[in-house]
Amino acid sequence: MLNGEQREYLLKLARSSIRDHLKGARPESQAPDDDVSSRACGAFVTLKQKGRLRGCIGNIRSSDPLHETVSRMAVAAASEDPRFPPMHHRELDATHIEISVLSPMQKITNPESVVVGEHGLYIRRGHLSGLLLPQVPVEWGWDRETFLRQTCRKAGLPDDAWKDPETEIHCFSAEVFGEDA
């Protein structure tokens, strides 16, 4: 669990990393003085403008310290999300940043164990995979089955692939926090 100071540090780091990148400078991420922000774990950075998605990229696991992962994913969300054109510097002030720090993945065999609002999903079969963060089904008002179908769809799999024993289903939790509106 991150405390308020650690969350604030990571949010400021994400914004300054994007700002540096948009200026053509190399983002600087000074190592924090605490063990929590320096631990290695997966993280996603989500960018929104007027409540609408503007970019979201992350790593499900990382061997790098959390602060480095957040810095890199913030820049990637602003410049590499294939669903959107790269962000322009004029957009940054109107952009809300949200960070999701992921727990380790756990493979599950019973889809009934998925709890909407608590779990994120990572579904994989063969070379296809898709991930949805825990906040996504809540934002869209999905039930468990819709969440499973939508994660399959994101992976490029048939909607009912989650029922196939060849499909791997992993769940995780996330500590989600963002800038004050």
What does this structure look like?
This protein is α+β, with helices and mostly antiparallel strands and 181 residues long. It has two domains: 99 residues, Hypothetical protein ph0010, domain 1 (Glycoprotein, Type 4 Pilin, 2-Layer Sandwich); 68 residues, Dna Ligase, domain 1 (2-Layer Sandwich), CATH 3.30.1490.150. The chain is built from five helices and eight strands, in the order H-H-E-E-H-E-E-E-E-H-H-E-E. The strands form two sheets. It has a four-stranded antiparallel sheet, with helices on one face. Strand 5 and strand 6 form a beta hairpin. Helix 1 crosses helix 3. The longest helix is centred in the first third of the chain and has 19 residues. The chain is globular, with a radius of gyration of 17 Å. The two termini are 22 Å apart.
Task: Provide a concise account of the structure shown.
This protein is 30% helix and 26% strand. With 181 residues, the chain is α+β, with helices and mostly antiparallel strands. The mean pLDDT is 93.
